Amino acid sequence: MKYTLNALCSLDCKQHDHFGDIHFIRKTSHRDDIIIIDASTAEIFKQIRSNNVLTADFEAKNADRIARLVADNILVPLQRSVGKVEKQLTKQINLWLQVTDSCNLACDYCYIPSLYSDKSFHRDTIFQLFQHFKDIEGLETVHLKLAGGEPLMVFSAWKDEVQWLRTQLECIGISLELRIITNLTRLTNEMICFFKHHSVIISVSVDGLGDTHDQHRKYKNGAGSFAAVMTNIERLHARGISPSVMITVAGDNYLGVPALVEYLIEQDMTFRISDAKGGYLTPAQFEQTMDTVNALLDKAIDQGYPVSRRVVFSDLRTHEAASTPCSMGSHAAAIYLDGSVYFCHTEFQKGQPLGHLSGGQNLLSIIRSGKQKHFGLSDDCQQCQYRFVCAGGCPLYRVNGKSPMCNVYKKIISQVFDIYNKEDGKIT
Ligand SMILES: C[S@@+](CC[C@H](N)C(=O)[O-])C[C@H]1O[C@@H](n2cnc3c(N)ncnc32)[C@H](O)[C@@H]1O
Ligand code: SF4
Ligand code: SF4
Q1: How far is the centre of ligand 3, averaged over its atoms, from the C-alpha of 334 (Å)?
Q2: 198, 412, 423, 424 from 427: Cα distances, Å
Q3: d(Cα 170, Cα 133) in Å, to the nearest integer?
Q4: Which residue among 28, 199, 225, 247 has its CA within the 20 to 30 Å range from the CA of 84?
């Protein structure tokens, strides 16, 4: 088939010390509207730019790449069939599914604006989601994060529906990867069986050992939750489930976080370490924590702890270059209790939803209407060597077009790449 290039797209390449050549297409309508592509896709772009007709063999070999370029409106087929509705295309979709606004804890830094509302989960949300998934061309995997509030407080409100969704998707060749984000203060044997049966990945929030955790993650009466969480982690381990840990660093736990990291390394556990958003942590505090944490990780390499496979650093894209710090606006979104679709869970009932599952618009179009939220990067970010690792940080918390943690992120990224190099045996 013959194609022409969208005249508003240009091809560019940036050399990066760690990732090598990063190829990307920029839409000239906005300097931040960037799509990272692989070297083979860049080759297709160049061939068409030099007016070469793609051979049938070449087209067949690159069918996926060409389809993506067409879906992203970078390539325009010259023989578009009349009346054919172009479907939107993605291989995977990642959703935060708010299953409750209730929570038994009262963490002062919690950034869910709808927390403790009196609304409950609309069960038909799951059925509406299924209808949307069916209509997405090329969809192979749905990653669903069950979250809240505390999702395990309302297990019976979603377990049958989620099970149903998994079966229905399986019948049409789509796999459903489930993750639960939980404070793990409530855990029944029935839940453990469900997790095992459906291979649910468990992310448990732990912010320190003992008092450090309790400072943050306390019940409404002020009592700490650490003992209950550790008992439940052990119960999961005893059943062969290894949860990953989510650490949120804030001003009142930052000194205790390294001790937790030491413990997780010892236990060979996976974790993500993030800066609390919303002014709960100063850059100096985060820097102090991360200097110690990265020194621990550097040492852990010598003991065989595979940092690159075990640790995620905030929203930094240290594993693969990316034009944005998260996939929201591209193939990810947050679904509220009533089926409204938000760019991010930190906007529930506060910001404007992008759309609604029952609104007639397809889910990918709703999600992609939020892409602009990533735009507006500062000139510093445009020129930064970490443009495709930090990408300006979370767009909802930038100050003057860049992350308030800018200088700390730069230091962390450089430390992390040194650690990766050591792990790869590139340095000793
Ligand atoms: C909002 S909670 C919901 C799930 C569950 N209740 C829990 O605590 O894991 C999800 C994650 O968001 C993190 N979080 C809450 N407030 C935050 C903030 N201001 N900045 C960064 N992360 C935050 C929590 O620590 C937790 O790991
Ligand atoms: S347990 Fe989770 S949802 Fe509940 S207050 Fe803490 S961070 Fe927020
Ligand atoms: S916020 Fe700072 S580290 Fe991140 S891309 Fe912008 S300039 Fe670079």
Answers
A1: 25
A2: 41, 18, 8, 8
A3: 12
A4: 28
Q: Do residues 225 and 213 touch, judged by C-beta distance below 8 A?
A: yes
Q: 348, 354 in Cβ contact below 8 A?
A: no
Two tokens, residue 397: 């918390």
- pLDDT tens per residue, range 279-338: 999 999 999 999 999 999 999 999 999 999 999 999 999 999 999 999 999 999 999 999
Least confidently predicted of 6-10, 264-268, 387-391: 6-10
Query: What tokens were used for 172?
Result: 């049409």
CA of 109 to the centre of ligand 1 (A): 8
| Pocket residue to mutate for ligand 2, from 98, 110, 114, most atoms within 8 A of Cβ | 110
Rounded-to-integer distance, Cα 260 and Cα 208, Å:
5
Structure tokens at 58: 């070449």
The whole-angstrom separation of Cα 44 and Cα 50 is 10
Is the beta carbon of 393 within 6 A of some atom in ligand 3? yes
Q: Which residue has the higher pLDDT, 216 or 353?
A: 353
Nearest CA to ligand 3 atom 2: 406
pLDDT at 382 over 80: yes
Assess whether pLDDT exceeds 80 at residue 21.
yes
